[in-house]
Amino acid sequence: MARHGLPAEDRFSDESRPRAEEPAIARWAETGLYRQLREARKGAERFILHDDPPYANGDIHMGHAMNKILKDIIVRSASLMGKDAPYVPGWDCHGLPIEWKIEEAYRKKKMDKDEVPKDQFRAECRAYAEQWVAVQAEQFQRLGVMGEWDDPYLTMKLEAEAKIVEELLKFAESGQLYRGAKPVMWSPVEKTALAEAEVEYEEIISTQIDVGFEIVESPIPALVGAHAVIWTTTPWTIPVNQAIAYGSGHLREYADLVPRPPG
């Protein structure tokens, strides 16, 4: 299993990184255009864009630029159509990509992360995320994206974490919260669960196969003993494949194709 989306290099402490031009950002902020739009559209029909937050773990790239610029176009278009269209930028401040960067810093110092107190490790992750939030916010504003840059959404804000717990309690009180079982990807190296987006699979070429499933029970007697044929490109799933399913309409069509004895 491989990690997905981790930057190729860590420039967390690189003081030579090009910074945004302060005069340009200052002029953008001085116009107060975003606040003027909020005042002008107060009371109008609301248009809310829920923005999936990026990780706070590196300089922005072309993917970030395309994502944020297109969303900015959508929000501005809604505003031009007379709607109240606020935009609250946000960042994902938790997860393996951020933890991995802190661990890399430990390894450079010949340190084992398991020897570091958990509260210290988390504090360093929070500080790391805070610095990259500031850097990315600066870079996004250089792209001309308007929004609540002075009060963004951060998953590590205590208010956000408290809101998550509050909403979870609503599920529990309404009986919608339950305990079940599901497979979860686990990294034995990092000793942590992995999200689906953090797992990459090696590409393989498999032989496609046709498999006949014997029909052992059916409300249509002519189908019993016949075989339903399926085609698959994932032959490794066959040993645990218990059954196939299809609609009642297909059952009748299939029965019409089964040869009947003479007479």
How helical, in percent, are the residues? Answer: 25-40%
Trace the largest sheet across and list its strands: 1-2
The chain-level mean pLDDT equals: 83
CATH topology of the largest domain: Rossmann fold
Radius of gyration: 28 Å
Protein structure class: mainly alpha
**Terminal residue distance:** 61 Å
Instruction: State the CATH class of the largest domain.
Output: Alpha Beta
Number of helices: 7
- DSSP strand count: 6
Unreliably modeled segments: 1-16
Fourth-level CATH superfamily of the largest domain: HUPs
**How many structural domains?**
2
The portion of residues forming beta strands comes to: 5-15%
Shape: extended
Helix-strand pattern, N to C?
A: HHHEHHEHEEEEH
Largest sheet: 2 strands, parallel
Strand and helix map with partners:
Elements: H1 22-31, H2 33-40, H3 62-80, E1 90-91, H4 96-108, H5 118-142, E2 153-154, H6 158-173, E3 186-187, E4 192-193, E5 209-214, E6 227-232, H7 248-257
Parallel strand pairs: 1-2
Antiparallel strand pairs: 3-4, 5-6
